[in-house]
Amino acid sequence: MEKVKKISVTGEGDILSPFNYIKRIFEFRNVLPFLANLSGALVALIILGFLLTLGAKSLEFAKNAGVANILRTTWNPIAEEFGGLPFIATTVLVSIIALGISVPFTLSVSIFIAEWKRKNMFFDVFNTALDLLSAIPSVVYGFWALFVLTPFIRILQLKLGYPPYGVGVLTAALVLAIMIIPFSVGISREVLKLVSSDIKEAGFSLGATEFEVTRVVTLPLAKQGIIAGFILALGRALGETMAVTMVIGNFNAFPKNLFSPSNTIASLIANQFNEAWGNHQSALILLGFLLFLITLIINLLGGVILRGAKHEL
Amino acid sequence: MKKIITLIMISLAGTLYAQGVELTGAGATFPYPLYSKMFDVYYQTTGVKVNYQAIGSGGGIQQLIAKTVDFAGSDAPMTLQEEEKAGGEVLHIPTCLGAVVITYNLKGNPPLKMTPDVIADIYLGVIKYWNDPRIKKLNPDVNLPKLVITPVYRSDASGTTFVFTDYLSKSDIKWREKMGTGKSLNWPVGIGGKGNPGVAGVIQQLEGSIGYVELAYAKQNNLPVAAIRNKAGKFIMPETKSISEAANVKIPSHTKVSITDSDNPNGYPISSFTWIIVYKDLSYLKERRKAEELFKLLWWVTHEGQQYTESLDYASLPNTLTTVIEENLKKLTFESSTVWKK
């Protein structure tokens, strides 16, 4: 007790020698809050600095070429034409298709894990495998898609009478869907677990089956959180670079159909940044800035919905 | 802990011991395997260490202009804009030759012959099928299928694309007007692959595709390559010999020239130099000793160093060029006196 009283540096009646005074200041428990605040501020500063650099470089483009030029449709660095509209459109298109493909899988997987789990080997293996999916590097997904997925797409394209490229918007969306499933499952299974067991048991006591409880009780309650998971997964899909670059075909124009090659903002930047100078470079940075803004807005939206959901449960 | 300290001490002592002159360069990725070999041999024989970072031609030039490196490597000559920015006279020293080859995927991979107008029209989307009469006329012995041609290009900005489009711009008027020369273009048809492996990967998987890669890459991966009709009307296969021949023409003294579409009847038409670029006034190196070492290195690379080209699938500089390069190297100065001494 005696010791605790002496903690306060400025405490009244606490007479300290200058040496001890300084020693107190640097005691770990006094320094810790300061360090914590500093790291917090640092993160905010880094993001701010990031925005400023991107913004400044983007302004360069606005000044030299006019910001409206980025909203044109032709990308031709030789002629100094930097129309980024096809890339913005494809980025959004590919991500939304990927999300659409992933929804049924995410829902069934997270219900399986959170609601109908059984204590057995299979379940543990399944759960771990799912977590491992999110640890696979993007380039490995891309590699797999290029060598395993594209031959199947090619067969499909031949059957439907499209040129058998194998790569294109659909291929990219498929590999993206697989990549974001562990991400959205991670959120929705936690939200599903949050649904209080009292309510569920009430359902059972009324004679509802397991399926009915999930459908009528758990899902409606967890709906908001699951949607937030999807939105955050969408944010992830928008910025995915390597895997998409490998299978989207890198064709700098609007896709004509689901099978056409196209290009997303992220893969365009990955492709061209190393040899881009002047307006070419600032156009790429401006596109990167736009992507950053889109992702930021979507992540904020997801965060708000998720917070609301947790509050409700 | 003690072990670690000892290790650090040893490595520190090592670096102190080796602290002679060290040269740094940055730039083109294309000659990187050759430069690695050359600079390694150079280090073994002279003790002078040369660091080369393969960051891309454009990056190398920017770093040279910023004077953060001693020399730049580039597959494309400096543009007027870049030379203006450089602010002083620069020298383009050719170090070896490379070539861009046309590769394809057809059943059985028959040997093919191509002309610049056919290649251009394939990449413009005018020729759509392999059994097009214009391809058939060039290859009467080959049974060409009615199969869609998928042109494959480099999706990343690259010197390979620059050389390929420079060639087509010179040899095909339609290409020059519609597409032009550059490191990344607005391709009207086809699909893009990232880097040589990306292009080759698509081609190996997709029957009916055609693309362009560096010769060294095609050779090391046993890709089929087409013979191209040169200016003299001869069909030439890309071999280190025919590529060297392409440079065996009258070269202006500044050696900053494109040799695609060469006049030499035995030359492969899509050949190109790769250069090391330095300022003519080497005062930016700060020390005279360093300027002398750079001079010696460039001399070695363009003379003794040439023996390492063939084994790595690069073509060596033709003998006729050596005197031109020597004259240029002798022009290098350090604080207004020539670096070269008799």
Chain-wise SSE layout:
The complex is a heterodimer of chains A (313) and B (342).
Chain A: H1 2-5, H2 18-25, H3 28-64, E1 75-76, E2 81-82, H4 85-114, H5 121-133, H6 138-160, H7 169-194, H8 197-205, H9 210-239, H10 242-247, H11 265-272, H12 279-312
Antiparallel strand pairs in A: 1-2
Chain B: H1 2-17, E1 22-27, H2 32-46, E2 49-54, H3 57-65, E3 71-74, H4 80-86, E4 90-104, E5 113-114, H5 116-124, H6 133-138, E6 150-154, H7 159-171, H8 173-178, E7 191-193, H9 195-205, E8 209-214, H10 215-220, E9 227-229, E10 235-236, H11 240-246, E11 271-279, H12 288-302, H13 319-330, E12 333-334, E13 337-338
Parallel strand pairs in B: 1-2, 1-3, 5-9, 6-7, 6-8
Antiparallel strand pairs in B: 3-11, 4-8, 4-11, 9-10, 12-13
Helix pairs in contact in B: 12-13
Gap from first CA to last CA of chain B? 54 Å
Care to count the β-strands of chain B? 13
CATH fold field value of the largest domain in chain A? MetI-like fold
The fourth-level CATH homologous superfamily of the largest domain in chain A is MetI-like
Please provide a written account of the structure.
The complex is a heterodimer of chains A (313) and B (342). With 313 residues, chain A is an all-alpha fold. Chain A is built from twelve helices and two strands. The longest helix of chain A has 37 residues, at 28-64. Residues 1-5 of chain A have low confidence and may be disordered. Chain B has 342 residues and is of the alpha/beta class. Chain B is 39% helix and 19% strand. Chain B is built from 13 helices and 13 strands. The longest helix of chain B has 16 residues, at 2-17. The radius of gyration of chain B is 22 Å and the shape is elongated. Residues 14-18 of chain B have low confidence and may be disordered. At the A-B interface, strand 1, helix 6 and helix 11 of A face helix 3, strand 7 and helix 9 of B.
